[in-house]
Amino acid sequence: MADANYYIQKLRLNSHIEGGAFKETYRSQLMLPQQILNGNYKDDRNVSTAIYFLLKHGQFSAFHRIASDEMWHFYDGDVLSIYEITKTGQLIKHQLGRDLENGESFQCVIGAGSWFGSRCEVSGGFSLVGCTVAPGFDFEDFELATRNDLIKEYPQYKNTIAELTRI
């Protein structure tokens, strides 16, 4: 099995603002005009985008939300835990991995507008995944959570929020 550094070099991954490493692999040339999208989009959007994303144990993707649905795909390494706080305030822990007998799955979808963060919880491990966003990702649609604001809104998840936020 390849290690995290192999994938970072071979796939030419770069540091991501959320944590971990990534590389955009696809951006549809087909555009959706802003007037047919809901009010969450400030401009036209590509139909879809995709990235590779890698987290090593000890790193995390900080809680954030985007205007689109995001489908996650498992590729290699260890299970990735994705923590989603839905628009209705439910905390869901998705387990992205290959151990189907223990509740892991190869794919999961994080709904548009949900707060979510992720980490590889296996000591010494890493998770290589992919993310597909439709309508396509744009940093105008990205909001990084602040610890205090998110805890005010969801005090019942204080510990998880504190562990998966930086500011």
SSE diagram, text form:
Blueprint: H1 4-10, E1 14-15, E2 21-27, E3 31-32, E4 45-46, E5 49-56, E6 60-65, E7 69-77, E8 80-85, E9 91-96, E10 107-110, E11 115-120, E12 126-134, E13 143-144, H2 147-153, H3 158-163
Quick summary:
The chain is mostly beta strands and 167 residues long. The chain is built from 3 helices and 13 strands; from the N terminus they run αβββββββββββββαα. It is globular.
CATH superfamily annotation: Jelly Rolls
- Tell me the Rg in angstroms: 16 Å
> How does CATH name the architecture?
Sandwich
Number of domains: 1
Quote the average pLDDT. 97
The profile of the biggest β sheet is: 6 strands, antiparallel
Instruction: Name the poorly predicted regions.
Output: none
Description:
By secondary structure, this protein is mainly beta. It has a single domain, classed as Sandwich (Jelly Rolls). It is 12% helix and 41% strand. It is built from three helices and 13 strands. It has helices spanning 4-10, 147-153, 158-163, and strands spanning 14-15, 21-27, 31-32, 45-46, 49-56, 60-65, 69-77, 80-85, 91-96, 107-110, 115-120, 126-134, 143-144. The protein has a six-stranded antiparallel beta sheet, with helices on one face. It is globular and about 45 Å long. The mean pLDDT is 97.
